[in-house]
Amino acid sequence: MTSGIHCEYPTASSGPRGMSFPHKISLRGVIPLVALGIICPPAISIGAAPAEQQSPQTQARSSRFRVIRIVCGSKGVTHGAEFEMQDVRTVFHVPDDHQIIVYFEWEGPPGAHHAVGTWRSPDGKVALTSDFDLTSDGTRYTGTWRLSIPESIAIGLWALEAQIDDQPAGTQTFEIMRSETGGSAPPPIPTAAQIYQWAAAASVFVTSLDQDGEVITSGLGFFVDKGMVLTAFQVIDGASSVRVELADGSNATVANLVGWNRRQDWAILKMDSAKVQPLIRAQPNSWKIGEVGYVLTSQGQGSRTIQTVNISGLQGTAPSTQRLNISTGGSIGAPLLDGYGHVIGILGGGVPGFGSQRMGTWALYLDPGATGLATIAGPTALPLASIPEVATSQQPTTLADLGAQGVLIRPLVRNPQVAEGTLCEDFQKLHGVAIEPVRPDRNFSKKLGTLALVVIWAPTARIKSMARLRIYDEDNHAVEQTAPSKLELQPHVTMFSAWKVPLTSLPPGTYRIDLLLDDEPQWREFFRVIG
Question: Is the pTM of this model over 0.70?
Answer without folding.
Answer: no
